[in-house]
Specification:
The chain is an alpha/beta fold. About 45% of the residues lie in helices and about 10% in strands. It contains ten helices and nine strands.
């Protein structure tokens, strides 16, 4: 698909992003403050990403390098890093775990030692590279299947799902909630129109005007969210498939 093509290694998405990071990535202090606090409280941190090393290094250097004197390089915030992880397969069988030299980007077979950056592998071999973890794992991700469903169901990890679209959804809801309640009212009127009708009724009520008004109002709601796709979390008055997936996860 087009989505798979632009996100694949060597695809235009990553190539164009790296050319002008400031245009595509929002700079924020929140990330380095959060990671700094985790390290200061002796929390073990790791990064598992499907992105290749060159892209990961470019983006995180832009976001994290020289933000904190105690952690001058972005790798200082993490105990271990895996790139090109091929999630969700990483959480199952995975492949061979290879070490990466952060200075050169060269690969080598991991055979123990002080390696910190890896390529591929699977969860079981990767966990051996980390310091012992006491307690639960909180895994933060933005992909409902690769980052939430598989690690939660197969490994019992706690998950924090990032939903950047939610901010816009809530903002739009404030604009359209009166229309939403209008559609509910029209639905109630429709139900009342049919109340009491039985098999003896041969002529159904004419609700053409009512149905057209409901359709028009739903279209008005959708256009506030996105004129092409509507709300991410609703399909008409019902929760979308994505919304139901999120609800099942939590």
């Amino acid at each position: 698909t087009a989505n798979e093509e632009v996100h694949s290694e060597g695809g235009t998405y990553k190539t164009e992003t790296v050319k002008n990071l400031a245009s595509y990535i929002e700079m924020t202090d929140d990330i380095h403050i959060l990671l700094s606090r985790l390290k200061e409280f002796d929390k073990k941190t790791f990064l598992v990403t499907n992105s290749p090393w060159d892209y990961t290094n470019s983006v995180l250097s832009f976001l994290l390098n020289n933000k904190n004197e105690k952690f001058p390089h972005w790798l200082d915030y993490f105990d271990s890093v895996v790139v090109s992880a091929a999630k969700p397969n990483f959480f199952r069988t995975g492949g061979t775990l290879r070490a990466i030299d952060p200075q050169t980007g060269q690969l080598k077979i991991h055979s123990g030692g002080s390696n910190k950056v890896f390529l591929g592998g699977c969860l079981s071999t990767f966990m051996e590279t980390l310091p012992p973890i006491d307690g639960e794992v909180l895994y933060v991700g933005d992909h409902i299947f690769a980052d939430v469903m598989v690690p939660k169901k197969q490994h019992g990890w706690r998950n924090l799902l990032l939903l950047p679209e939610l901010k816009n959804e809530l903002s739009c809801w404030e604009q359209v909630k009166y229309l939403y309640y209008k559609v509910l009212t029209l639905g109630y009127i429709k139900a009342e129109t049919y109340r009491g009708l039985d098999i003896s009724c041969k002529t159904p009520p004419d609700i053409k005007v009512l149905k057209n008004e409901m359709k028009r109002t739903v279209t008005m709601i959708d256009e506030v969210y996105n004129k092409n796709f509507g709300s991410l979390f609703r399909s008409g008055l019902r929760p979308s498939f994505f919304a139901m997936q999120v609800q099942r996860m939590y």
